Structures are given as structure tokens and as C-alpha cells.
Amino acid sequence: MLELLFLLLPVSVAYGWVMGKQSIKKELLKQQAQMSRALTSSVSLLLKNKEEQALDSLIQYLNDNPQSIENYIAMAQVFRKKGEIDKAISIHESLLNSEQVELSPFDREVLELELAQDFMSAGMLERALKPLSGLLKSDHANEALAMSLHIFEQTREWQNGIDAYLNTKTTNISARNRQLVSHFYCELASLSNNAKNKKQLYKRALKVHSDCIRSLVSLAQLYLVLNQKQKSRELIVQVLDKDPNFAPALFNIAPECFVDEFEQAAWLYWLIKEKQITSVSAHNQMAEYIVKEKGLEEGRKYIINHLKSVPSVRGFSKLIELEREFFMSDAHFEQIQTLINQYIELKPNYECKSCGFSTNHFSWRCPACNNWQTIKPLIGLDGI
Ligand SMILES: [Zn+2]
Questions:
Q1: Domain residues of the chain, as ranges?
Q2: CA 349 to ligand 1 center in whole angstroms
Q3: Alpha-carbon distances, residue 80 vs 44, 52, 96, 286 (angstroms)
């Protein structure tokens, strides 16, 4: 009996929603009676494991009441959620292959998407791709592309994902799909050993999704290797224009882009004054530059001022370093410094803005929630 309840609950809800849009009470009552008769007989057949007869009965009802396709989709979804994917597949395939039921192109597409979802839930990824590839040029192109990309992301078949994108009807592709495709291009680029090929792939990633920080950073690194420092600098500026939060991630490549320390200091000044960057690494570097140019006292003043507005462990560590002369002995200073460093090492440097996952190793895809470009350098007391 449990099966019966499971079936009837969402179906009656979906039915009520569909019919609620029509205000003719009489019609509603008549159809409800018809439907419950059809459902009761189908469900009792299903319970007796006479699936074929049950489906025939459902199809007959659908044929008489073509507006109620939502009910069957809702029913199949319940089967899928319960893990009885074979039943969901039977319902969808029977409806799609039935000669008795006349489906509108829209309903056919919806059923094909549902069927693909069944195969995905069953782990039959190859079979899911079949209905999806046909949908890439339909009104459901975006949903079909999202599902295809999800599959190729799992199988790490980046080129196949890109091909699916290129086969998709060009209008109406969601920002999320574009972002995914841009990372597919970046994944391909990172696998290539050819600088020219890499450059081309990163540029394509940017064409698909202009906010793809990963391709900008990767291109900046690539131009540095090719000794084209000016281009590298321009790209770093672009990254900071788009998302200043990534600044700490650039500190390992940025210094090499500059001709001398003065140019680097000018860049730091621009970051702090123009971009209002609160990153501790940027301010600590600035303090070092001030110490060199104006002496220890000015550097200390700078760090103390910054600590007052943005307290941070790394900033405090820098201050201790500059205060070294006030310690009783070198051993005393090193003891304190070691303790602070131990604390810093315990804390993560990066955090996923989508799920909160924290880590010391930066990656473009969050291993916890699988979102791309959501891991960012940590800010705040333990920030970098
Ligand atoms: Zn995450």
C-alpha cells in the first residue's frame, strides 16, 4: 500500500496545480473522477507487477486527456527518487515510443530530458548523452547542454564538452554554462605542452566567458614565460579590475612582471589606493618597501595603521618582525615568531565562497561542491 500512497501524493498535487488554472469546477470534478479511476486501475496493475498492462492503461488515459502529461512526469520522478529508475525509464520510453499518444514537440523534449535524467541517475552516462545530443538545437538546448557538460565534467572529456557547446543553438546559453565551458578550455590548455596552443585555448575560454579569471591568470603566467612582461602586466591589471579578491593569488607572478622594485612599489600603491585592496600580503610588501625607502620607523607606523583598520595575524607577525630590536634577545624574538608561524600554518589560506570549504591548496574547482572559480583567498583575521 505504501507504493500507492507514494504514487498518489505527488500526482494529486501536480493535478491540483494543473487544474487549478482552470476555473470550471464541474470540469475539474469530472476529470478528477476520471483520473482517479485510471490511476487506481494502473496502480493496482503496477502493484501486481503487471507493468506492461499498467503502462497501457496509463497511456490510454493520457490519450484521452492529453493535458495531463505533467502527472506522468511527476509520477516517474517519484520512482526515480525512490531509486526505482527502471520504472521511470519505462514510463518515459513508453510515452515517447507510443504510437497512440500524440506528443507536442515541447512535451517530447521534456520527456527526453527526463529520460536523460533517468539514465544519469542510473550512472548510464553514454545512454543519457543520446537524447541530450538531439536536444542541443531545441527549445530545451540550455538544459540539455547543462546536463551534457555535467556528464563530461565527470568523465573529464573536456573536448567533448566543448563540442556539445559548439553544437548548441547559439542564443540563450546561460552564464553558468558559459563559465563551465571556459573552464573546459582551460583544462585542455593546462594539458597542452605547446605555448601557441595554450594561448589559443585560453583566449577561446575568455571569448566564451569574459570573466574567466583563470584564463587571465594563466595567460599572464604564460606571457611571463615567453618574456612578454608588458602583456603579463596588462592581464594582471585586468584580473584586479574584474575581481580584486584574487590579488593575493597574483603575488607569486606579479613581482616578475616588473622591471624594478620601484615599478613594483608603484603597482602596490595603485592596488592599495585605487583598488582599495585589504590583502595582508599587499600591505606587508608595502611596509617592506617603506622600510627600505624611509626607514624602520615609517614602516612600523604603516603596519600599525593598517592593523588598526584591518586586524590580521599575518600583519601582526610583520609588526613583530619590525619590532625585533625591542626584544630582550634573538632567542626571545624567535620563540614568539615561531608560535605565530605555527598558528598561521594551522589556518587555511583559501575558502570556497559557495560552500565554505577551506583549504591551503588553491584550485579552480572546489572539491567539495564542484563549483568552478568559487575558491578565493581568505580575508579577515586569518586572511592572506
Ligand atoms: Zn565549494
A1: 214-259
A2: 14
A3: 19, 18, 17, 58
Q: How far is Cα 306 from Cα 331, in angstroms, rounded to an integer?
A: 28
Give 376 Cα–ligand 1 centroid separation in angstroms.
10
Q: How does pLDDT run across 80-128, given as a tens digit for each residue?
A: 988 989 989 988 998 898 877 788 899 999 999 999 999 999 999 999 9
Q: What is the spatial distance between Cα 313 and Cα 348, in angstroms, rounded to a whole number? A: 13
The angle formed by the CA atoms of residues 95, 96 and 98, to the nearest 5 degrees, is 65
Helix runs in 67-135, H state only: 69-81, 85-97, 105-121, 125-135
The span from the CA of 17 to the CA of 361, in Å, is 48
CA of 374 from ligand 1 middle (Å) equals: 7
Using CA atoms of 373, 374, 375, 376 in order, give the dihedral in degrees to the nearest 10.
90
Q: What are phi and psi of 245, to 5 degrees?
A: -60, -20
Task: Assess contact for 305 and 296: CB atoms under 8 A.
Answer: no
Distance 378 CA to ligand 1 centre (A): 14
Q: How far is CA 112 from CA 15, 58, 75, 88, in A?
A: 21, 18, 15, 12
- d(CA 84, ligand 1 centre) in Å: 30
Give the phi and the psi of residue 15 in degrees, each rounded to 5. Answer: -65, -45
- Taking only the tens place, the pLDDT of each residue in 122-175 is 999 999 999 999 999 998 999 999 999 999 999 999 999 999 999 998 677 999
Retrieve residue 56's grid coordinates: 497501457
Distance 6 CA to ligand 1 centre (A): 34
- CA 365 / ligand 1 centre spacing (Å): 8
**Cell numbers that stand for 85 in this block:** 529508475
